[in-house]
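Entry 12.
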Amino acid sequence: MWICPLCSQQFVNTNQVHSCRDKELSDFLAGKSEHTVDLFFHLVDEYRLIGDMRVHPAKSMISFAARTRFAYIIQLGKNFIDVVFPFKQAYADNLCFNKIKPVPGSDDFNHHLRIYLKEDINDEVRKYMKMAYQSGL
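Predicted 3D structure (tokens):
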């Protein structure tokens, strides 16, 4: 693992291109509703029950990483958070994803999930969270 000497992020590739210290977590949470902030930390807590992971704020999103990045928060809304799980295949037979899109120039499929309530992180969502986490090991 390579560790950036400026921001201390860990990467599989030496000199990995990244948005080094562009944003702090507080930049994303500033001005958000208490509900949205609670949802964010609930998601983090749920992932920590699955395994060791790190939270990386970047220029336009917040990523979750084990060995590599495996999930992304792309929007913190007024009363929701939008999460993306990249998988190597489309999992269309589900009740949780509101959109599944192929990633151009890749063999990945982004699976979009909108969380409104803590209860939205149910057994089905946890299954996909675990799958995403495993892909980042």
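Annotation: The chain has one domain: 23-135. The mean pLDDT is 92.
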